[in-house]
Design a protein that fits this description.
Rossmann fold; six-stranded mixed β-sheet; binds adenosine-5'-diphosphate
C-alpha cells in the first residue's frame, strides 16, 4: 500500500470535467448501468442525464425496479457505471483509481441508509465523528455543534444506538453523513424503517440542513408525503427520468404517480419498496421494532414551510461531455483536494470509513478491534 495523500487529478486531467453545469454539486451524463449479460441482462439505468444543484433537496421516486437505488449507488461511487460520466463537483468519478475514489467518497459524499448502519459499541457522538476519526481529520467543532443542534441530538450524544429510538438513530446517521460537510448527501429510503412521526422528524431535519446550511441532498423515497419535503422530485421509470416536479406537495406527487399507473393499466406497478428486514442483532445492538410502512402516513410538512418559489428554477442543463479536448477548467469548488494530511489508508483502517461497501466480515473485524482497543483506537 502506498502512503501519502491521493491527490485528485486536475479538472484538465479528467476529460469532460469542465462541462459541470453551473451550481451542480453532482451530475451525470448518459449514465447507463446494465446488470448481467445476454438474455438475462437488465438495463437498470438507460442513458440518464441529471444534475443535483447545490443547496437543493431532491427526491427520487419511481416504481419498484425503476432504477432509483442504482442511480444513488452509481452517483455515490458505490457501484460502477456501465457507461456514461459521473461527477461530484468537477471531479469525474471514472478518472479516479480505487484509492482516490475511496477518498472522494469519504470526503465529499455522505450516505444515509435505511438501516442506519451505526456501530453499536460506540456512542452517538463517536458514531457521528467516526469517519473523521478514522481518516485522522480534525473535527470542525463549530460545524459539528451546528449539525448536532440542527438534528436535536445534543442530549443524546452519550447514548449508544440501543439506547436510542429508531428516529434518533436515523438522526445520528444523518449527522454522521453531514458532519464531514460533504458536497452531497445521498439518502436511500431514510424513513423507510420509521413510523410516521419520527419519519417526519428526520425529513424535517434533512430539509433544515438544506435550508440552514446549504447542504445538497438527494433522497430516494416511495412516499409522496416524504417527497413533499423536497424542493424537486425526479420520477424514474424503466431506468429513465420521465418527469420532474418543483415545489411538490403530497397531493401533486400522488396525482403524478396515479397518472403513471394509468399509462400502464395492465402492468403491475408497485411504488412500495420491499419491507425492510432488520439485520441479525450484534452483541449490543437492539434492532428497532418492525414498523409497518404506511403508504401515505407521513404528515404533510407544516412546521417549516418550504421557501416560497413562485417560479420553478430552470432545470440545470446537462451538457454532454466532450469526447476529448479538455476545455477551460474551473478549479473544483465543491470537491477540493483535502489538505488535511495523509490519506487514511494506512495499515490500521484501510477504507474503513467506506462502510457502505463493508461486508459482514469487515464489520466483525472492525468491531472486534474496537472492542479490544477501545473506541479511540
Ligand atoms: P429501485 O431502487 O427503483 O427499486 P433498482 O435500482 O434496485 O430499482 O433496480 C433496477 C433494476 O436493476 C431492477 O430490474 C433490478 O432487478 C435490477 N438490479 C438491481 N441490482 C441488481 C443486481 N445486483 N443484479 C442484477 N440486477 C439488479
Amino acid at each position: 500500500m502506498t502512503s501519502g495523500p491521493a491527490a485528485f487529478p486536475t479538472p484538465a486531467e479528467t476529460a469532460g470535467s469542465s462541462v459541470t453545469p453551473p451550481g451542480a454539486a453532482a451530475h451525470c451524463v448518459a449514465l447507463t448501468k446494465r446488470y448481467g449479460t445476454g438474455n438475462t441482462a437488465v438495463t437498470a439505468l438507460d442513458a440518464v442525464d441529471v444534475a443535483f444543484s447545490q443547496g437543493q433537496f431532491t427526491a427520487i421516486m419511481g416504481p419498484s425496479g425503476s432504477g432509483k437505488s442504482t442511480l444513488m449507488h452509481c452517483m455515490a461511487g458505490l457501484d460502477a457505471a456501465t457507461s456514461g460520466s459521473l461527477f461530484i463537483g468537477d471531479i469525474q468519478l471514472g478518472a479516479l483509481d480505487d484509492r482516490r475514489l475511496t477518498r472522494l467518497r469519504r470526503d465529499s459524499i455522505g450516505f444515509v441508509f435505511q438501516a442506519y448502519n451505526l456501530v453499536p459499541t460506540l456512542t452517538a457522538l463517536e458514531n457521528i465523528t467516526l469517519p473523521s476519526d478514522i481518516a485522522g481529520h480534525p473535527i470542525d467543532q463549530a460545524w459539528l455543534d451546528t449539525v448536532v443542534d440542527t438534528l436535536g441530538l445534543r442530549d443524546r450524544l452519550k447514548h449508544r444506538p440501543n439506547e436510542l429510538s429508531g428516529g434518533q438513530q436515523q438522526r445520528v446517521a444523518c449527522a454522521r453523513a453531514l458532519a464531514g460537510r460533504p458536497a452531497i448527501v445521498f439518502a436511500d429510503e431514510p424513513t423507510g424503517n420509521l413510523d410516521s412521526r419520527t419519519g417526519a422528524e428526520v425529513l424535517s431535519f434533512l430539509r433544515e440542513s438544506v435550508r440552514r446550511t446549504g447542504q445538497t441532498i438527494a433522497m430516494v423515497t416511495h412516499d409522496p408525503s416524504a417527497a413533499a419535503y423536497a424542493d424537486r422530485v425526479l420520477f424514474l421509470a424503466d431506468g429513465r427520468i420521465v418527469d420532474e416536479m418543483y415545489d411538490p406537495t403530497a397531493e401533486l406527487v400522488l396525482e403524478r404517480m396515479k397518472a403513471f399507473d394509468a399509462d400502464v393499466p395492465h402492468a403491475e406497478v408497485s411504488w412500495a419498496e420491499p419491507a425492510y428486514v432488520p439485520p441479525a442483532p450484534a452483541t449490543a445492538y437492539a434492532p428497532p421494532p418492525a414498523i409497518p410502512q404506511p403508504d401515505l402516513a407521513l404528515p404533510i410538512p407544516t412546521a417549516i414551510p418550504p421557501a416560497p418559489q413562485s417560479t420553478p428554477p430552470a432545470p440545470i442543463p446537462v451538457a454532454p461531455a466532450p469526447a476529448s479536448a479538455p476545455a477551460p477548467a474551473p478549479a473544483p469548488a465543491a470537491v477540493a483536494p483535502s489538505t488535511n494530511g495523509p490519506a487514511p489508508d494506512g495499515a490500521s483502517a484501510p477504507d474503513a470509513v467506506d462502510m457502505a461497501n463493508w461486508t459482514d466480515a469487515d464489520w466483525d473485524d472492525w468491531l472486534a478491534r474496537k472492542q479490544t482497543e477501545g473506541p479511540g483506537a
